[in-house]
Design a protein that fits this description.
By secondary structure, the chain is of the alpha/beta class. Helices cover about 50% and strands about 15% of the residues. The longest helix is centred in the middle third of the chain and has 32 residues. The two termini are about 55 Å apart.
Length: about 900
């Protein structure tokens, strides 16, 4: 008979038994032979009142436990139930210590035995899950969890999760299980025994043919794309298009502007022309370009590439949108997806890290996740992984940097490039187009037509690519990782391995150490001088955080060159060490391979730092602006320097020109601003004669949309900020309750966002809702967005930057709340520098830069709201300037013709409740 797993969950009055918190419910589910065999649950009198917020969370009241006995009466039975079992919980670090403290309090000995944490186990076996909360995992895996935060329900769901993890383990290939078993002894809980039992069973089974081998790694078997000959005729008339689309979608609504877009794109591809198309929400933009692109590519035997802004949109096109159009047209296409090199895992680095025996817990957990993920991924794209903060540093070390040696049998990036050569449609992102490496150039050379979706985001992508950023803290971190011989760091390990096998000249090692000390000394001297100089320019009575443009500093150029020279001198020796240590004539042991990999990574980081340092301080480009950021409470550790281009039109045009002779179509929902139709096209570097086509959905499409301007919000200029935030928080909670969630809240300040979210959390008025907030919720922007979309009763808080390149399906949004009109902060360094340049040229920076940028963001926010003619959505503006300022009319003019209600908050909430209730009744 196998082991018995006691799956426990407890509900308590708080987090600390030491501070008087007590248990109020205990539940255990017994799993034997991977079946639920028994259950026990009981209420426990906590001998104190249950806090209201705990009652709201658990729905356990003082009345529920009124007749229950205290823990003293249950302790012995609970202790005996757990004896000789493996203790399992979803976060053993809470449940087990709390139980141990309670056992100790009533005079029982400490419970001893093995433990398994299903959080740790789920992270390993579901490495791409969006969240590891029990409720989220249960939803993903189809596990019933009707009443979360009740011990009996949570314990049963955890038991089913444990069984699901076991089943997932059994499906893994033997090489993966063997590597996982070796790693598992460094896990936090006793999963090694579990892994071994599955491994022992797997050794009796036939090997699966679903995997391929790379050294000791098992990878999901991948196939090469094969272009499939087929014929396809473009539906040239409106009748032909309508007939085709109605054949698949019986409730298809004819959209004349969408048909016009299709014809325009098909014609532009044929003539190898260039066009800008603004396709407003309701056009059906994605289908509007996919149908003609596929028709052209197939019928002409050509290759068409589609570039979007974010990795999320690349994946959405590849996995969702293109398959739908394939089904529509009745064809099976060769479709390839490729991103920049650093998005991909480097299998050689994974092998090297696996072979090294001394590793941290973050490295262990991340490697376990990677091993499982490699059996599932078809892309090798590390963005699929959900790792911790420490795990992200590990993933960064495992990213692909250099091209793989030809002798290596498999590489995900090269695989993606190879797929492109045989593809009819290529999906990529703007960053890849702008990078346009030699390898990518050879692949893209075959492309006959390019479609840039979210084309306005080419500007942001180019800005990000051209931005240089230097961080004092990161520099010191890298130096600390390198260290001298007396430090417990990488150089010491390299030194000892080198001396042991005489791999590197002693003189070279000593010289490198001397030059390292000199580099760190110069770095500290100059960065301290920078910070001190900057402090002189900061006003005395202002916020702790300040920014300062670099030209305002009075530091001699020789200071900067001394650091660059010291870095270069050390790098020269460091690269010589790398060459001698990695001499191919001598076989490296696994431990030495990992030391060398760490050393190469750190040398590469110093090379990057040197490049940034020169760009910021020595080889200064007059078309860029650079500023220093400092927090006076932590000098110089808070020192950060950023350099931004003021104009990227030339960068974009250079990249586009390198694509060669081909059709170019730039499309987006926001390509123009009222009265300034070339505001975006000029920033893209397009000719003033480039044709701009504006397509709009019929007015009936927006029948479910309304704008509400809240008239009784205070003027932020007239009241203290805390009062304004209180009113904003109240307005948000009232709106969310009226629409039952699905709300997107836009701020212009991260500080105001944080204060508002904290106030809402403290009030507990939205306790039944999932709150996701930029800068507060962990994870990337896209991961937060995906998490938000999973829940109906959810609210997403973001700043201006969050809306750029974000796409939210319409049924995920019921309302968009604009807290402040999305103007850039006047003191934001990049905006300030751009505005000063416009003013110096004799123009009005507000009307030429500030207002059009804000209107574009406003349009983007509305564009997320209505995604079909059946959608209902409210755009709610809390900023009274839209009504009181003359420029407010420009924001309203940028929206479709929809009702605008100017009402007090109470009236708005009533209207929203009536509106959505009527919709539910239908």
């Amino acid at each position: 008979m196998g082991k018995t797993y006691a799956v426990v969950d407890i509900e308590t009055t708080g987090h600390s038994s030491k501070n008087g918190d007590r248990m109020m419910q205990f539940a255990v589910v017994f799993v034997r032979d991977w079946q639920v065999v028994d259950r026990f649950t009981t209420f426990i009198h906590p001998e104190r009142s249950i806090p209201l917020f705990i009652q709201d969370l658990t729905h356990i009241t003082d009345e529920d436990v009124k007749t229950a006995l205290p823990f003293t009466a249950h302790a012995k039975k609970i202790y005996e139930l757990l004896t000789d079992c493996v203790f399992v919980a979803h976060n053993t670090d809470f449940d087990l210590p709390f139980l141990q403290a309670e056992f100790k309090r009533v005079g029982l000995p400490e419970w001893r035995g093995e433990k398994v944490d299903t959080v740790e186990l789920a992270k390993i076996l579901y490495p791409s899950a969006l969240s590891y909360k029990l409720g989220d995992l249960a939803q993903d895996l189809g596990i019933t969890l009707a009443r979360a935060h009740r011990a009996d329900e949570d314990a049963l769901a955890t038991a089913k999760l444990l069984i699901a993890c076991y089943d997932k383990l059994r499906g893994l290939p033997q090489p993966t299980l063997e590597a996982m078993h070796r790693l598992s002894f460094n896990a936090k809980t006793d999963i090694a025994q579990l892994f071994f039992s599955v491994l022992a069973w797997k050794r009796t089974q036939l090997a699966s043919e679903d995997f391929m081998q790379y050294g000791g790694l098992a990878l999901k078997k991948l196939t090469q794309l094969q272009s499939q000959p087929t014929t396809l005729r473009y539906p040239a008339t409106d009748e032909a298009k309508e007939k085709l689309l109605q054949h698949v979608w019986h409730n298809f609504e004819k959209r004349p502007a969408q048909f016009q877009m299709m014809d325009e794109i098909y014609q532009t591809l044929h003539t190898q022309g260039e066009v800008v198309i603004e396709a407003s929400t309701g056009i059906g933009k994605t289908l509007g370009y996919l149908l003609p692109a596929i028709s052209y590519a197939v019928s002409e035997g050509k290759q068409v590439a589609i570039s979007v802004y974010t990795s999320h949109l690349v994946e959405q096109l590849f996995a969702e949108d293109l398959p739908k159009v394939e089904q529509l047209l009745g064809v099976k296409l060769a479709i390839a997806m490729v991103k920049g090199k650093r998005n991909y895992i480097d299998l050689t680095k994974v092998q090297t890290m696996l072979n090294y025996t001394e590793r941290s817990y973050d490295e262990t957990l991340t490697l376990l996740q990677v091993l499982v993920w490699l059996t599932e991924t078809v892309t090798g794209d590390t963005n699929e992984l959900n790792v911790s903060g420490g795990g992200q540093l590990v993933v960064d070390k495992l990213r692909k940097e250099q091209d793989s040696a030809p002798s290596k049998p498999f590489d995900y990036y090269n695989y993606a490039l190879a797929q492109c050569k045989h593809a009819t449609i290529i999906v990529t992102n703007h960053a890849m187009v702008l990078a346009h490496t030699e390898q990518a150039a050879s692949v893209f050379a075959q492309v006959d037509g390019w479609i840039f979706d979210e084309a306005h985001q080419l500007i942001q992508a180019a800005m990000q690519r051209e931005t240089q950023m230097f961080s004092y803290t990161y520099g010191k971190y890298i130096f600390g990782q390198i260290g001298c011989y007396d430090d417990d760091a990488t150089f010491r390990l390299l030194y000892e391995a080198s001396r042991k096998y005489e791999r590197v000249s002693p003189f070279l090692l000593q010289e490198a150490e001397r030059l390292f000390s000199r580099m760190v000394e110069q770095f500290d001297t100059v960065t301290n001088a920078l910070a001190k100089n900057a402090m002189k320019h900061f006003p005395r009575k202002r916020d702790h955080k300040q920014t300062l443009f670099l030209p305002q500093l009075t530091i001699p150029l020789t200071y900067y060159t001394s650091v660059a020279d010291a870095m270069q001198a050390w790098l020269t020796r460091a690269l010589e060490i790398t060459a001698q240590f990695s001499n191919e004539l001598v076989q490296l042991a696994p431990s030495e391979q990992q030391i060398l990999a760490d050393w190469r990574y750190l040398v590469q980081q110093v090379q990057l730092m040197l490049h940034q340092w020169r760009a910021l301080f020595i080889e200064v480009n007059s078309s860029n602006t650079a500023w220093l950021e400092l927090d006076k409470r932590s000098v110089p550790s808070s020192l950060r320097i950023v350099q931004h281009p003021l104009d990227v039109a030339a960068v974009i045009q250079d990249a586009v020109t390198k694509l060669g002779k081909c059709a170019r179509i730039f499309t987006s929902g926001t390509m123009t601003v009222p009265k300034q139709p070339t505001f975006i096209t000029a920033q893209l570097g397009l000719s003033a004669t480039t044709r701009v086509l504006q397509l709009h959905a019929p007015a009936s499409y927006y029948a479910g949309a309304s704008t509400f301007i809240v008239t009784d919000m205070p003027d932020i200029q007239q009241v203290p900020q805390h009062e304004y935030i209180e009113m904003v928080a109240y307005a948000i909670t009232q709106t969310v309750r009226a629409t039952e969630g699905r709300c997107f809240v836009l701020f212009t300040s991260q500080q105001m966002l944080r204060q508002t979210v904290e106030l809402i959390q403290e009030s507990e008025l939205l306790q039944d809702y999932m709150l996701f907030a930029q800068g507060i919720t962990s994870g990337s922007r896209m991961r937060i967005l995906k998490s938000f979309q999973k829940f109906k009763r959810a609210v997403l808080f973001g700043t201006n930057s969050f809306w750029e390149g974000v796409d939210v399906p319409g049924d995920a949004l019921a309302s968009v709340i604009v807290v402040r009109l999305p103007f850039s902060a006047p003191e934001a360094p990049l905006f300030k520098a751009q505005a000063e340049r416009i003013t110096a040229a004799g123009h009005n920076a507000f009307y030429e830069l500030s207002l059009p940028e804000a209107i574009l963001r406003f349009k983007q926010g509305f564009g997320r709201l209505i995604r079909s003619s059946q959608d209902k959505g409210a755009l709610i503006v809390l900023d009274r300037r839209i009504e009181t300022k003359a420029y407010g009319k420009a924001f309203i003019a940028a929206l479709p013709s929809i009702p605008v209600h100017k009402v007090p908050l109470t009236d708005m909430v009533l209207q929203l409740e009536n509106w959505y209730n009527k919709n539910d009744e239908r």
